[in-house]
Predict the 3D structure of the following.
Amino acid sequence: MTAMSETIFHTKDLTKVYRSGAQEVHALRGVDFQAVRGEFIVILGPSGSGKSTFLNIVGGLDTATAGEAWFEDHQLTALDERGLTQYRRDHVGFVFQFYNLVPSLTARENVALVTEIARRPMSPEDALALVSLTERRDHFPAQLSGGEQQRVAIARAIAKNPEVLLCDEPTGALDSATGIKVLEALTQVNRTIGATTLVITHNAAIREIADRVLRFADGRIVEETVNATKKSPAEVSW
Amino acid sequence: MVISPLRLKVLRDLRRLWAQVLAIALVLAAGVATLILGNGAYSSLYETRARYYDDYRFADVFADVTRAPRALLGDIREIDNVLAAEARIVKLALLDMPAMAEPGTMFLVSLPEEGDRGLNLLHLRQGRLPDQQSTREVVVSEGFAAAHRLRPGAPLTVLMNGQRHNLLVTGIALSPEFIYALGPGEMMPDPRRFGIAWLPRPALEAAFDLDGAFSNVVLKLAPGASVDRTIEALDRLTAPYGGAGAVARKDQISHAFLDAELKQLSAMVKVLPPIFLLVAAMLVNITLSRLITLEREQIGLLKAIGYSSRAIAQHYVEFVLAIAALGIVIGISAGVWLGVGLAQLYARFFSFPFLIFTRDPQIYGLAAAVTVAAAVAGALLAVRVAVALPPAVAMSPPAPADYRARMGAFRRLFALRQTRVMVTRHLFRWPLRTASGTFGVAMAVAILVASLWSFGSINHMIDVTFTRAERHDALVAFGAPEPARALFAARQMPGVLAAEPFRAVAVRISHRALSRKLSIMGKPETPILSRVLAPDLRPMAMPEEGLILSEALADALDARPGDLVTVEFLEGTRRTVTLPVSGLSLGYVGLGAAMEITALNRAMGEGALISGVALQIDKTGQEAFYAAAKTTPKTGFVAVTALTVARFKETLAENITVMITVYVGLAAIIAVGVVYNFSRIALSEQGRELASLRVLGFTRGEVSGILFGELATVVLLAQPFGWLVGYVIAFGMVEAFSSDLYRVPFVIGPEVYVTASLVVCAAALASAWAIRGRINRLDMVEVLKTRE
């Protein structure tokens, strides 16, 4: 299990301060964090606790005010805009609350959008098969349900075979039955391609499908729980 | 004062969208400016000319005779509807300026004798009129005086009838007869080498041996009188005295050139402002449509809390009216400013004693009304959608854009990347907007094609005329026809390498009910120095018998090769003969007819006479030739090809920069207005998608590429359409401007299309560059958190 225990992310004293005029908002107050390859982590916390800011910094979408964030041997906090773009392009898959699909492209084409620029992608068809959407691949977003759109977004995120899959409220806009399907797709992908998966949610019930659960409050990790046994999404109820 | 919340919203929207507002306002302003400039210049020029003619009693009919007794004037005054008639002596003289080696011509006119009751009165700028009894005193035209720095008191030497006369300038003046003063054999006014001098009659009588006689008569007619009937009567009276046929004011050179200018201005008013206003209406429409889409929920909310559809419609119309008002203010200022510039340009070309720049409130009112109408028309379509929505529907977000286009074959054919597919589908999703954008950019291209082509055409005309047809270095026209041996004398002149005779005879050519007055040129069988070209530019040999008509003349007479035309000689024996049309020739300036010279003399029933010689001159002998040509008594005037062409090119070069700047500016305003608004709207619609792509790892360049790809497609699609529209406008202009005076060849070289496209593409690039910053600042974090 050496590969499994290999550290893929670590942060040291990660701090983020937003300044708006004379006001300072401390979004992160020195976060120390580690994740190993293939881990499925759920991040919980109230609004404004800093969990999204944290995800954005480790995802290369935002920069830290102080502290360090590392992905493998890349120091993310030292990369410039170009470096961060390259990092996102090569290593990170994102899933958003509102899917953010391109409305003018079909499901397959939305996935192909990413595979065209990725270094070692799977085929769009394989990615859609992983989320059980082979049948719907030629439909445009406007012709798909919310759950289907989110599964397309997951397929798009994993089609590049990313080392990291970052999901910010992936079930936030969905009803529970559809949400379960999406979570099943996420766990399935986590197992199949071994991407380290970080899922932000408001929904505490989801914690049970994770390897590890972090709780954010006031810009810090205030609680860390390791699940001895993971549940499958179908077993979770909310 | 309390401003209503909706009005405050208008003000804040204007501030927030200032760049788009300004871009649209500038397009509207260009429409207003061209409308004011065109209409203003037209009425300025028209009214200035009318007032000038009126105040200075410009004649209605002009006739040359060889020599008519002054007693004839009484008969002429008896013609019906003739209010005034003045007998004058009008002759050409050669200039003898110490500082000018090249030949120059002075147009001599006897002074009006009846004071304020005379015709073609002078407007004295400086000094005084000559004493009526003086044989030395002279008034000269202002342009000529300025070119030679002459002031009252300055000496002036001219060669009249081969004799040197030392004159004294007493005054500097203008005349309605010479607003546009074109020298004989010239293509552009050149005040250095051509001037007008007004002398007391006795001086001219003595110099030209015209005691008690006149060589020119001008008539003023009663308003509404038939000019044609008067001319007929006058021609009958003058025929025995060498009358070459009278001309109406419309054919008087100076007047006809002014008319041509007026015609161009009115064409400009018909073409340019509608283009700008149409494009502006379209911009208002697409911009407002997008604004309304973005504000859909606000509209629903306003309706829900009780605002009427009318109030909401009014709100958006107010927004558009504010843009129109800005456009009108900028347009009027620019129009007035350009108007002053144009007036100065007119002042250089046309000699007016005053220039009335019309500030007719009607013109401004019209411009403002048309602009508001265009803007509101563009807005109404967009606003209709907004007010039609029930509040509950408006408050919920619009359904996602539904794309269904497959374009499978198209994609396979071009192996499109997904980003290209996005571009293509987005363009097809909004066909009307894509078409509007394409149309707008195409109009920018069209304006350039329709304006830039003329320079190439003019160059072509110059090239054809002076390197293929008129290949002589100089042309000497005799004061009166000379026996053929004058040719040998010409060959003996210093510097002359070769000489070719020509005969010019004033005629009236008729075919069926159509007739035209012009000069037939008699040329050697195979002319070398002064050739006639066929429409395919091949030199033509002179036929043994028949006539060669220029295409313009053939059109005017509805005559074709093989037809017989009646030729009435208006000088010499004044015979009337019937001649066959043997061929058609190319001709850009005036109406032309050519014959073999001996055939012409035979038809006239005269011996071997020549009117002048076309010469080839040795460059090193040029100065000697100039000196000799001046002092030869036979010389009527000398035209030097190189000087004519140089002056023409010089004048063109003076205007070309101004014209190109104006047209490039106008085209750039359209191109920037369209491309900037189009890209802002595309960015507003796709900002979220593009930010999502940035999150997925697309670089700034790749993301910009998607938006710019869409712009580039629109700009490229617009090019051929713009070329076509420009071609059609240019063709229409050629047709509209073709007259007996000149015909512009319709030549559009590839460089015209290339220049037009380059200018428009550069303007498009600049606009794209302006929104690059916005693309780079796309907020990636924001799109993760918000629903559209």
Notes: The mean pLDDT of chain A is 89.
